What does this fold into?
Amino acid sequence: MEMGLEGFTDGQLLAVIGAAVDALTDDRLRLPSEAEQLDLLENLVRLGARLHAVQAGVAARVEAGEMAWHEHGTSTSTWLMHRLNLTRREAGRIVSAGEGLARFEHVARAAVAGAVLPGQAAAITSVLDKLPDNLPADTMTKAQTLMVGFAQDHNSAELRHLSRHLVEVLDPVGVEAREAERLEREHRAAMRTRHLTFAYDGQGSVLFRGSLPVVEAEPFIQIIDAYTAQARHGLDRIDPHTEPVTLAMGRADALIAMVHQHTQQALTPAHGGDRPRIVLTLSYDKLAKTAHDHGFPTAGCGVTVPEEPARARQPVPEERAPASVTKGPGTFPTAHLIGSGEPIPASVLRRWLCDADLMPIVLGRPSEILDVGRTQRLVTPPIRAALEQRDGGCVFPGCDKPPRDCHAHHILPWWAGGPTALANLVLLCPHHHGIIEPGHDPTADRWTLNLRHDGVPEIRPPARVDSTRKPRVHNRFHLRH
It folds into this structure.
């Protein structure tokens, strides 16, 4: 519709658009039909796409002319970040979208006309970027026309997979050679840009971000999927409080299981003169006081309290392992990871202390190191061998995890005086180790474990699962008897 807008400045045109948006979003009475509402939604999406293309084009011109640098001494992306409170990725996406459209004029015109949506435009420019540089100009124009035509029937994900078809149409004779060249080029690029980063989010999680070439990533995916498929749980499935596990959560559990098996079998190469280990510190005095307040003896913890004026005695549990038992209310000593300084939840600390290496470090008043004890394995190789022979794997009914995938769980926790002896140990996989882990409330309705006089572990479900709390035994022990 002709509105005589040719004489308007860009700022005036934006004001007109803004006024139209205000009119669309005011609360005046409208009675459109459902079909009209659907048409409105479609047209708004296309209008937004057109505005996005114009925005990207302006960003590309600003970047190419170094206008932000001339005015503010910074890049376009940095200026956008500070001016509009965008993240670096959001700002960079705007500039890169504009640069992509600037390289391919036919695609840019289609995007401004609303024939190609932003995601489709990004997919098309990524495919066109992969074409050989020595193609004639008319062939590149034909490629743009073909890809814009494909956008009428394909979404952005599908468009990204049309590169081989595009080459077949443009050069049917040399398609095999060009495709082989493209694959080699992409693999080299993927190897150059491979990365893996970790970031603490400050809320108890570590965020992963990275990329691998397809052929190198495939074995990793297969391994994760194998661990995911193996993660079948037993009796706890009938617990209504059991957390539903999504596919993404299952893959995260699989990664945890893979790392656990790696540490269990000492497959990791030495780093800094020793095998990699998680190191944390906690106050021994607080640990002993917690045990005393809960009515547990401190003997048998593997460490003795010094008589000298050591202001803090810090056992350093190292490495892995989840679950143990506490009684009564109270606060478990807070521990922190050495390196990141991140605090450890009490429930996780209690699990780690079940089967950890201890290095007692005595600190003086100004925190100077007075004495360093020799690392001692709580569960010795002979005890571990006997435990694996006795239990044969995770003792939780229905679980088929083998001994190598299990933790050695102290029924009475080591910090509360629980001895490292067969009569106080059972094998539990990481998942069921966490289920047996109690809180501080002794009256809590939870899963519990005990050893019978014949050494057979019994699991008692919470009352919410079985009001009689009838003890359950893994079938493996029934078969033996």
